[in-house]
Every structure is written in structure tokens, then in C-alpha cells.
From TrEMBL:
<dbReference type="InterPro" id="IPR029063">
    <property type="entry name" value="SAM-dependent_MTases_sf"/>
</dbReference>
<dbReference type="InterPro" id="IPR016461">
    <property type="entry name" value="COMT-like"/>
</dbReference>
<keyword id="KW-0489">Methyltransferase</keyword>
<feature type="domain" description="O-methyltransferase dimerisation">
    <location>
        <begin position="250"/>
        <end position="325"/>
    </location>
</feature>
<dbReference type="Pfam" id="PF00891">
    <property type="entry name" value="Methyltransf_2"/>
</dbReference>
<dbReference type="GO" id="GO:0008168">
    <property type="term" value="F:methyltransferase activity"/>
</dbReference>
<dbReference type="Pfam" id="PF08100">
    <property type="entry name" value="Dimerisation"/>
</dbReference>
<keyword id="KW-0808">Transferase</keyword>
<protein>
    <submittedName>
        <fullName>Methyltransferase</fullName>
    </submittedName>
</protein>
<dbReference type="GO" id="GO:0032259">
    <property type="term" value="P:methylation"/>
</dbReference>
<dbReference type="InterPro" id="IPR012967">
    <property type="entry name" value="COMT_dimerisation"/>
</dbReference>
<dbReference type="InterPro" id="IPR036390">
    <property type="entry name" value="WH_DNA-bd_sf"/>
</dbReference>
<feature type="domain" description="O-methyltransferase C-terminal">
    <location>
        <begin position="350"/>
        <end position="560"/>
    </location>
</feature>
<dbReference type="InterPro" id="IPR001077">
    <property type="entry name" value="COMT_C"/>
</dbReference>
<dbReference type="InterPro" id="IPR036388">
    <property type="entry name" value="WH-like_DNA-bd_sf"/>
</dbReference>
<keyword id="KW-0949">S-adenosyl-L-methionine</keyword>
Length: 590
């Protein structure tokens, strides 16, 4: 039997390339390097790039037969042999595509041995190491890649990767002849890479530039991969990073696994047991959470694909995204995970019934309307309230809405009143009253919810300025100055909405304003959370999301007039309506 040992000359070539990369990193700095890569770059564009990005590393691909051999190469170049190594997703997938291989065949690791710049700046050489053991059949890949040097690149790290700044930096690079050339999000590191091919007249041996941004910037990445000037084939399904339709469909079809993986992660209290700074061994985590170590590792590896945790050499670490599922974190989204992985998960199993009949699947599966179902179970009712509060980020700008600030100007002797119709657990009313100490509030809710709201508003210190009305939409209290209907109308069909709005109109004095908080369906088919929630409403409550014109018609049918609307976070809007035909301004009743 003959054995093919790795060719020593080629391994020596790898060492020479590694040594040259380390030398390059030591000798260059950002301001001097950028105009070499993008000839003609100067003035404000150079300032913007050099101000936001720092030269971070030179990258290259090596082909060691095994880890020991890679360590020996590091030692030969004076680099730290104990540098930790992580799996590479982006380069592995690109090699797999370029050579028609299954990504699972390719063991590509990333290592970043530290190198210091001439003024002591912390930098690195980024080594992608594709293991090419003897007889592995991977030798042709190594031979091809060694000559083409496709993966050799220079990387700049974006210091504060705000989405706008990141897009601006990409635009400057393109303006100076760099062409978008793939990229990806690496969940193992929670970082986004954007590659560019350098212009042909770049004065260096590296053909590509990488912008590296910590965190998940998949919107910018999508625009980068779709850029009309991108370097690769014009065939959209052939570009690096794009998925074939069958792969895309598989990802979509297994979306339910993701919902359940996140819900199980939350139900098992794993986010609370994990740390965002220090990775933990799965055995330790399993012991702390009463789970089965190998199965826990399977769950965590799956979640790492979506950036909820990051896999490191020592074990798993919680990411910023995963930390949103902690029970005690401000704005925790844990209740949403339990809701979407619990009752709403079951009801979505009956979506075809809802589409066939127009009736909510929830009612068919649980035997009653979801408000009645939740109202009968205190635990579920509380989970529902908490899950509504988990998206209360959309309420934050409301206390400064002109209608609220105008009402807050009323003299202290005759304070204005905000009536929150079906105000849930009082989250929004609490925010408004906390921001405006002279306003008073009335909250109308069904009996079980009134008690939860009372506790919350008391805890927020607003109790003495609040009154409660336990009842139905028909009981909207008269005499308020501002009426609020937040995330209520989308629960109902058009007829019921007209009824609710008529109850409001009847209670509203001539001077009163009505604020309606809802997501608006975009008129141009652009992506919006409203489109997803339209399906959720159909499946679970028999309601729907609507466009602004649709709301204007419903308001008009109830004798109200839509005066305007403005955007809120999470694709929500606040619509401002008044009694129709009432001339403005009308003096408040005092
Ligand atoms: C989707 S929640 C919105 C809660 C709150 N306004 C918010 O934005 O967080 C809808 C609310 O309508 C209330 N509701 C349902 N049917 C009602 C009725 N017939 N009368 C009064 N409130 C009702 C529910 O109790 C629930 O709190």
C-alpha cells in the first residue's frame, strides 16, 4: 500500500505566505493603507473610512494536514501556537460552492494569532485552515486555492457598526472601485463580514477587502449580496451567499423547529443560566438546568446557527439576542417565546381551517375565543399581558405625541384625562401618566385584566391618578380629553370595529382626540411586520391588519375623521382621529 504524505514544499509555501502576512500587518496602518487599496481615495471619503474602520488583519487560507502541523507553522512564524480556533461558516460554504463539495466534508477553522502594529495596535493574521489530511481527496482544492489566493484579504473592523454608518462605508468603497463580493453572518462569533474585490490597480498583493462588523447586520448584508455592481455572476441564484430554492425551502419548512428550539431554550431557563461574556461547558450547564448534556449540546448548536448563543472552544456563551429571552431582562421577550411556542403554536397547526372558512383556528382547537380562553386561566391571562408588554417598545414615543403633550398643558386645577379603551395591563397608560404628572387616566378593561392593570399602575406610582372601569366596549366612559385604542381594532372584523368606534365617538366630547395604535399594511407590498401579524390575526382572533385608507373608512362610518398618522417602532403607527365636522381648535371642557 502506498501512502501520499503532504508535499513538504507546499507546506513551506504556506509558511512563507503566513510570515509575509504577519509582516504586512506589522508594517501598515489604516490611513496609509486605504489609498493603496483604493487608488484616488482621499479627502472626506478617506477621513470617513479611516475614522470608522481600523485595519484589523490580513487573511489567508492554509491547508495543514492536521492541527499539530498548523501549530508548527505558527511556531515557525513566531505566532502564538495556542491561539483558539472556531469553525468558519462563510469560507467553508464558499469553498464548498466553488468546488462543488458538501460543506460537511470541509473542516475549515478560523484562527487569529495576534500581531501588533508598529505603534502597538492590536491586530491579527486571520488564518482559515482547511484540514487536508493525506488521501482526503481535498488536495485539488488546496492546489487550486494556493494559486488563485481567492481568500487572501485585508480586513477593516468597523468600530461602531450602526446600520446607517455601515451602509455609508460600503457606498464609499463602491464609489472608489471596490465591488461587493459576498459575505455572511457567522453565528459562532456573532459577526457580519462584507467582502469586496479590490480594483485592478490596487497597489498590493491582496485582491479582496473585508469589512467586519460585530453583531448581526443581515439587512446590510442582504443589500450587499444583492448589489447591482457585485463581482459575481449576474445570475441571482449563482451568487455566493445565495441559496438554491430547495435549500431555501428547507429552511422555511423547518421554521417551526426554530420556534420550538427558542421556546424550549426559554422554558428550560437556559438564558438565565448562561453568561454573555463567559462560555460554559455543556456538562456544567446541563447540571445547572437539569438537562441531558448531549441533547443540550444539540439544542445549543442549533441555536448557534441563529445567533441566540455562540459556540466557543470552552463551550457556549449567550449572545445579546439570546439574552432577550432572560426572565429578568428589561423588555424581556420570554413571554412571547412561551406564547408563540405554546398556545399560538398549536393554533397555527389549524391555519388551513382559518383560510378555508375565514374562522379563527384558535377557536376550533381550543373550543372558544382566545380572549375568553385566556380570561378563564389566570396564568395564561398573565402570560398574554406580559407578551403584549414585551412589544411595548412601540409605545415609547407616544408620551410626546402632540395630542398628549397638548392635553398635559391643561391647568393643574382642571387636569386632562386620558381614557385607555381595552388598555390591557396598563403598560401604555402608565408610560403616559409617568411622563406627564398632571394627566389623569381611566382604564377600561374586562374584569380579570382590570386587576392586573391596577397592580401595574399602582407599582408605577400612578395609582392615585387612575380610575378603572370594568366592562365591555359599550362602557367607554364619557368626558375624557384623549381616547386611546391600542392594538384593539386589529382583533376584530370590520363590523365589530365600527361598533367599537361608535362607542368611542359617542363618549368623546367635541374637543376630544382619539389615538389608534396599529400596524398599517403597506400599500406597495413592501415587507412589514403588519403582513405577518395579518396572518396571526386571521389564525387566532378572526381580526386583521389594515391600511390607513381602510381605517379612515371605518372611522368615517363611526362619525370620526382621520386627521393624520405617524410611525412608531416595530412597524406600528399612531392614527389621530377627531369627531367629524368639529372645527379646530375646540376649547377643552373644564
Ligand atoms: C391585544 S390586547 C391590547 C391591550 C393594550 N391596549 C395594549 O396595546 O397592550 C386587546 C385587549 O382587548 C381586551 N378586550 C377584549 N374584548 C374586550 C371587550 N369586549 N371589552 C373590553 N376589552 C376587551 C382584552 O382584554 C385585551 O386586553
Amino acid at each position: 500500500m502506498t501512502t501520499t504524505l503532504p508535499d513538504k514544499t507546499l507546506l513551506l509555501d504556506d509558511i512563507a505566505g503566513l510570515r509575509a502576512a504577519a509582516q504586512f500587518v506589522r508594517e501598515h496602518d489604516s490611513v496609509a493603507l486605504l489609498p493603496l487599496l483604493l487608488p484616488g481615495l482621499d479627502g472626506p471619503d478617506l477621513q470617513a473610512l479611516a475614522g470608522h474602520c481600523r485595519f484589523a488583519h490580513a487573511g489567508l487560507l492554509l491547508f495543514p494536514p492536521d492541527t499539530d502541523s498548523l501549530r508548527a507553522q505558527f511556531a515557525a512564524c513566531g505566532l502564538d501556537v495556542d491561539t483558539p480556533s472556531h469553525p468558519s461558516v462563510v469560507v467553508r460554504d464558499r469553498l464548498a460552492r466553488r468546488h462543488g463539495r458538501d460543506p460537511a466534508e470541509l473542516d475549515v477553522r478560523i484562527l487569529r494569532p495576534r500581531v501588533y502594529g508598529s505603534a502597538g495596535q492590536r491586530r491579527a493574521v486571520e488564518v482559515f485552515a482547511l484540514a487536508v489530511p493525506p488521501h482526503s481527496g481535498l488536495e485539488p482544492i488546496a492546489a487550486y486555492e494556493r494559486t488563485r489566493r481567492h481568500e487572501a484579504h485585508l480586513a477593516f473592523e468597523v468600530e461602531r457598526p450602526e446600520p446607517l454608518a455601515l451602509r455609508g462605508l460600503c457606498a464609499i468603497l463602491v464609489r472608489h472601485g471596490a465591488r461587493p463580493d459576498g459575505g455572511g453572518y457567522n453565528p459562532h462569533e456573532d459577526g457580519t463580514v462584507l467582502y469586496f474585490t479590490l480594483p485592478a490597480d490596487a497597489a498590493c498583493d491582496y485582491g479582496r477587502l473585508e469589512l467586519y462588523a460585530r453583531g448581526d447586520h443581515r439587512d446590510t448584508l442582504a443589500a450587499h449580496l444583492d448589489h447591482p455592481d457585485r463581482f459575481d455572476s449576474p445570475r441571482p441564484d449563482a451568487r455566493p451567499g445565495a441559496r438554491q430554492p430547495a435549500e431555501t425551502l428547507l429552511h422555511l419548512l423547518t421554521g417551526a423547529w426554530t420556534t420550538q428550539a427558542l421556546a424550549a431554550f426559554a422554558r428550560l431557563d437556559l438564558p438565565d443560566a448562561m453568561d454573555t461574556r463567559t462560555a460554559q461547558r455543556t456538562e456544567d450547564l446541563a447540571r445547572a438546568t437539569g438537562t441531558h448534556p448531549r441533547s443540550l449540546a444539540t439544542l445549543l448548536r442549533y441555536l448557534a446557527m441563529f445567533g441566540a448563543v455562540a459556540e466557543e472552544q470552552e463551550g457556549f456563551r449567550l449572545t445579546e439576542l439570546g439574552a432577550l429571552l432572560r426572565a429578568d431582562t428589561p423588555g424581556s421577550m420570554r413571554p412571547l417565546a412561551l406564547m408563540y411556542g405554546g398556545p399560538f403554536y398549536r393554533s397555527f397547526g389549524g391555519l388551513d381551517h382559518a383560510v378555508r372558512t375565514g374562522q379563527p383556528a384558535f377557536d376550533q382547537i381550543f373550543g372558544e375565543n382566545h380572549f375568553d380562553h385566556f380570561a378563564r386561566d389566570p396564568q395564561l391571562a398573565s402570560l398574554f399581558d406580559q407578551s403584549m408588554a414585551a412589544s411595548s417598545r412601540m409605545f415609547r414615543p407616544l408620551p410626546t405625541h402632540p395630542v398628549i403633550t397638548a392635553a398635559a398643558q391643561a391647568p393643574a386645577a382642571a387636569p386632562a384625562t386620558v381614557v385607555d379603551v381595552a388598555g390591557g395591563n396598563g403598560e401604555l397608560l402608565g408610560l403616559i401618566l409617568t411622563a406627564h404628572p398632571h394627566l389623569r387616566g381611566v382604564l377600561l378593561e374586562r374584569p380579570h385584566a382590570v386587576e392586573a392593570a391596577r397592580r401595574r399602575l399602582d407599582a408605577a406610582g400612578c395609582g392615585p391618578r387612575c380610575a378603572y372601569r370594568s366592562g365591555d366596549f359599550a362602557d367607554v366612559p364619557p368626558g375624557g380629553d384623549v381616547y386611546v385604542l391600542s392594538r384593539v381594532l386589529h382583533d376584530w372584523d370590520d363590523d365589530r370595529c365600527r361598533e367599537i368606534l361608535r362607542h368611542c365617538a359617542r363618549a368623546m366630547p367635541a374637543h376630544a382626540d382619539l389615538l389608534v395604535v396599529e400596524r398599517l399594511l403597506p400599500g406597495d407590498g413592501s415587507p412589514s411586520l403588519a403582513t405577518a401579524w395579518d396572518l396571526h390575526m386571521l389564525c387566532n382572533v378572526g381580526g386583521r391588519e389594515r391600511g390607513a385608507d381602510h381605517y379612515a373608512r371605518l372611522l368615517a362610518d363611526a362619525g370620526l375623521e382621520l386627521v393624520g398618522h405617524s410611525p412608531l417602532p416595530l412597524d406600528a403607527h399612531v392614527l389621530h382621529a377627531r369627531r367629524a365636522g368639529v372645527p379646530e381648535p375646540v376649547l377643552r371642557r373644564t
